[in-house]
């Protein structure tokens, strides 16, 4: 990058950069983000009548493209440049146009000075640096392979292990000897006493099973195999046992990473899983659409069902079901005594449609019952997590009658609980972020002190750092969740280097190139969400009821607005009424476009209809704003706003009802980490217009199976939708083409079956590597514990004291 800056300064563009920064100096803003920078440069080019290619292809144009932030300080400019994904360089451009590269520490000091929180005379600030802990672990080299951690790890560690065949066989032998389930020995027994005996024994066992009909059930030859040293777990039939043994035989004779992966994926080592989803209303009905209770609940519930089914299938295939081995999945959530008519006050609830998946709700300790008996916002939840983990450990041990094999955390609070539990129980920890709030709230770290009373980001970001570094592996829904796109910073990437003024500086918060990161997107529940055209699976009376609810029903409790012409093409959206979800932006976009109003009605399913019914500040603001927009753009007769809590089957049918009328789905969020509603809409067959900021960019292939929209440019957004609608009017086939491709996209890439197979394979492979390579993590975990006890806990205690006074 320094060459690019030098090229600007050595060419006739020097006068441009001088002029451009002189104009920036006139701006009031001293901290410019990428959007501001790009806009300012665009305006500069227009004002100075620069040709088109100057904006894109000049040295200065390129430099601007890579510049993420500019901070102005005493006439100097600090340029934060991101030359490639997951990298950062910082330069100081002085008034005389001299350039110096700056260190991360200097950058963080500049940021502190900007908010008047730089006090060097009082001593240094605590610096958090996790890099030394990653120095001795393998790291991916090519950024495009970030998120494919397990493939890399497998190849890397296999090649290391296979270099020393004796050691490798030793590890394999040890690994095979340790498996058991409730005292039942699995895989091999004491008759096989060494790796040599293992190798010989496998050949004998293969010869033995090869003499039997492939479909012969395992129980018919179990005892003969036992005499040869082999216990249950190899397969449910002679054919399956033979296949597994042959993979192992090949692994011993000519090892390679693919055979290793195939073998480890068959090993019965995961039976019991905990999914921690701590804060929310976690229930199966009546909880969606509430603040804080969005996609995470849907995701975890569907994941639990799918995991339980897959584990059960794997157990059956391994021949273990007949021996009483059972899969069990527990969703750990909080018990809320005042549960507003939901089942969130029940300790144990079976997950519908499963044999052995449960929601286990553990109450918070009482502290102040006025608070702890009720729902508590995710921003206020921090003081309760440690004791919650202690209490949950006991409950889990009792429910499982032993330890779980895998603990998966969800969201910051669930991840920190997963960390505490995994540490106490010595179990593999997996993290799922869903949404990292740090990148959702602009400048949330820089101004944390001003925001702390409401948001407590100091606790949240400390917890994030601890949990993400502690996790054995992390699954993300998209690549960009980890490291963003060429022009935007990823959510995990934003933890790499930041300041929490007066609290600490993070100079290296996470190793983005670590193989712990794996992209495993979620799926969509196919029993509720399926194509509108599958009429045989739809209940026509529900369809008619919901059609009436959406378009004509007059009921001021549930619906606002009477459509002048209900036959117009519906533009549909469903979301919680959060500011970020930006349904008000969609209403405004619709309000501004008379052409769109001519062709379409706007149908929103969102939040509540009355401010006084909501206890959530953001939701109240959004309700008011939506009324103002309806008023301002005179949208009566063109909009329906429904405030309904839908059952699962209704929320599936509602998309299909919209598709029956050849409607479209719009997801206008200012930022969306992933966006489950997009999958729901697409699988139902709705052409979908979704925000270009976040996960939808990876789900949708623009103009092929859906469309990107920029929610900060309402005119352009309206034009894109209008163009589609006009095309459909001219060519009725167009809607069907996009609709079919949307359906195909979900079935080919976003199913729970794909997700679960991958997740379980990750759990086994990371478990295997932890065992064989004896990954040395204790020093890292000790450092993280120190942060927990010295930073997190005292702050949580202070918040608790404040809660006690309420
Ligand atoms: N949802 C719902 N009723 C509502 C709002 C949302 O059932 O009033 C469901 C929606 O169908 C989806 C989930 O909540 O399954 C929202 O997930 P998404 O990932 O789109 O967003 P999040 O709310 O997690 O940010
Ligand atoms: C949280 C979000 O904000 C959504 O974008 C995701 O789809 C959801 O969690 C499930 O992961």
Report how far apart the termini are.
53 Å
Radius of gyration, CA atoms, in whole angstroms: 29 Å
Bound compounds, each kind once, are: uridine-5'-diphosphate, 1,5-anhydro-D-arabino-hex-1-enitol
Beta-strand level of the residues, as a percent range? 5-15%
Family: Belongs to the glycosyltransferase 1 family.
Catalytic activity: an NDP-alpha-D-glucose + D-fructose = a ribonucleoside 5'-diphosphate + sucrose + H(+)
Domain Sucrose synthase first GT-B: 259-551
InterPro entries: Glyco_trans_1 (IPR001296), Sucrose_synth_GT-B1 (IPR000368), Sucrose_synthase_pln/cyn (IPR012820), SUS_EPBD (IPR056736), SUS_N (IPR056735)
Provide an overview of this structure.
GO terms for molecular function: sucrose synthase activity. It comes from Funiculus sociatus GB2-A5. It catalyses: an NDP-alpha-D-glucose + D-fructose = a ribonucleoside 5'-diphosphate + sucrose + H(+). The structure is a single chain. The protein is α/β, with parallel strands linked by helices. The chain has 4 domains: 2-102, Nuclear Transport Factor 2, Chain: A; 150-177 and 188-264, Up-down Bundle (Four Helix Bundle (Hemerythrin (Met), subunit A)), CATH 1.20.120; 272-442 and 451-494 and 511-523 and 756-804, Rossmann fold (3-Layer(aba) Sandwich), CATH 3.40.50; 535-750, Rossmann fold (3-Layer(aba) Sandwich). It has 32 helices and 25 strands. The strands form 5 sheets. It has an 8-stranded mixed beta sheet with strand order 11-12-10-9-13-14-15-18, sandwiched between helices. Strands 19-22-21-20-23-24-25 form a 7-stranded mixed beta sheet, with helices on both faces. Strands 1-2-3-4-5 form a 5-stranded antiparallel beta sheet, with helices on both faces. Strand 7 (180-181) and strand 8 form a beta hairpin. The radius of gyration is 29 Å and the shape is globular. It starts with a helix and ends with a helix. 1,5-anhydro-D-arabino-hex-1-enitol (LCN) binds at residues 294-296, 299, 434-435, 477, 672-676, 695.
């Amino acid at each position: 990058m320094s060459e690019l800056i030098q090229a600007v300064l050595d060419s006739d563009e020097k006068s441009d950069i001088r002029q451009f920064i002189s104009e920036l100096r006139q701006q009031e803003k001293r901290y410019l983000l990428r959007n501001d920078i790009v806009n300012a440069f665009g305006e500069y080019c227009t004002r100075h009548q620069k040709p088109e290619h100057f904006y894109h292809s000049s040295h200065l144009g390129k430099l601007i493209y890579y510049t993420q932030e500019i901070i102005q300080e005493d006439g100097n400019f600090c340029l934060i440049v991101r030359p490639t994904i997951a990298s950062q360089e910082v330069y100081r451009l002085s008034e005389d146009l001299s350039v110096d590269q700056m260190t991360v520490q200097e950058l963080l000091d500049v940021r502190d000075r900007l908010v008047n929180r730089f006090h060097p005379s009082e001593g240094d600030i605590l610096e958090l640096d996790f890099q030394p802990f990653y120095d001795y672990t393998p790291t991916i080299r090519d950024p495009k392979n970030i998120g494919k951690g397990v493939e890399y790890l497998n190849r890397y560690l296999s090649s290391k292990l296979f270099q020393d065949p004796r050691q490798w066989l030793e590890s394999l032998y040890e690994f095979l000897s340790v498996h058991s389930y409730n005292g039942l020995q699995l895989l091999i027994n004491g008759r096989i006493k060494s790796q040599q005996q293992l190798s010989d024994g496998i050949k004998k066992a293969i010869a033995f099973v090869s003499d039997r009909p492939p479909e012969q059930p395992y129980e018919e030859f179990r005892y003969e195999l036992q005499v040869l040293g082999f216990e249950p777990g190899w397969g449910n039939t002679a054919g399956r046992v033979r296949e597994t043994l042959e993979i192992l035989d090949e692994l011993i004779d000519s090892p390679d990473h693919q055979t290793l992966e195939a073998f480890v994926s068959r090993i019965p080592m995961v039976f019991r899983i905990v999914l921690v989803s701590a804060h929310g209303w976690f229930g199966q009905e009546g909880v969606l659409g509430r603040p804080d209770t969005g996609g995470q609940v849907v995701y975890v519930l569907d994941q639990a069902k799918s995991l339980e089914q897959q584990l059960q299938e794997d157990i059956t295939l391994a021949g273990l079901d007949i021996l009483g081995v059972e899969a069990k999945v527990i969703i750990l959530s909080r018990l809320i005594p005042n549960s507003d008519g939901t089942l969130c006050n029940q300790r144990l609830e079976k997950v519908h449609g499963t044999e052995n998946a449960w929601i286990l709700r553990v109450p918070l300790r009482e502290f102040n019952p006025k608070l702890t008996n009720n729902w508590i916002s995710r921003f206020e939840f921090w003081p309760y997590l440690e004791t919650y983990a202690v209490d949950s450990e006991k409950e889990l041990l009792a429910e499982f009658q032993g330890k779980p094999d895998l603990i998966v955390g969800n969201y910051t609070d669930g991840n920190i609980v997963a960390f505490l539990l995994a540490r106490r129980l010595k179990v593999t920890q997996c993290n799922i972020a869903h949404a990292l709030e740090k990148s959702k709230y602009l400048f949330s770290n820089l101004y944390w002190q001003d925001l702390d009373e409401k948001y407590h980001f100091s606790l949240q970001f400390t917890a994030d750092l601890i949990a993400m570094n502690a996790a054995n592996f992390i699954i993300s829904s998209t690549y960009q969740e980890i490291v963003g796109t060429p022009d935007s910073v990823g959510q995990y990437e934003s933890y790499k280097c930041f300041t929490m003024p007066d609290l600490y500086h993070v100079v290296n918060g996470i190793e983005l190139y670590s193989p712990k990161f794996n992209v495993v997107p979620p799926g969509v529940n196919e029993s509720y969400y399926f194509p509108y055209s599958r009429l045989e699976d739809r209940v026509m009376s529900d369809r008619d009821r919901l059609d009436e609810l959406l378009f004509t029903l007059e009921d001021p409790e549930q619906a606002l607005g009477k459509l002048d012409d209900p036959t117009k093409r519906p533009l549909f959206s469903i979301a919680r009424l959060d500011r970020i979800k930006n349904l008000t932006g969609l209403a405004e976009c619709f309000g501004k476009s008379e052409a769109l109003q001519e062709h379409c009605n706007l149908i929103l399913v969102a939040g509540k209809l009355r401010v006084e019914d909501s206890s959530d500040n953001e939701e109240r603001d959004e309700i008011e704003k939506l009324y103002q927009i309806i008023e301002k753009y005179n949208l009566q007769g063109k909009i329906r706003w429904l405030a309904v809590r839908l059952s699962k089957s209704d929320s599936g049918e509602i998309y299909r009802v919209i598709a029956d009328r050849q409607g479209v789905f719009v997801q206008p969020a200012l930022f969306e980490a992933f966006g489950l509603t997009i999958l729901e809409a697409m699988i139902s067959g709705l052409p979908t217009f979704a925000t270009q900021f976040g996960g939808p960019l990876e789900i949708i292939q623009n103009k092929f199976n859906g469309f990107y929209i920029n929610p900060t440019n309402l005119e352009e957004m309206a034009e894109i939708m209008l163009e589609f609608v006009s095309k459909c009017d001219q060519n009725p086939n167009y809607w069907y083409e996009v609709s079919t491709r949307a359906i195909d996209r979900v079935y080919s890439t976003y199913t729970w079956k794909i997700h679960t197979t991958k997740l379980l394979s990750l759990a086994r492979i990371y478990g295997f590597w932890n065992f064989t390579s004896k990954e040395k993590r204790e020093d890292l975990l000790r450092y993280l514990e120190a942060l927990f006890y010295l930073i997190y806990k005292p702050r949580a205690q202070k918040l608790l004291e404040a809660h006690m006074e309420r």
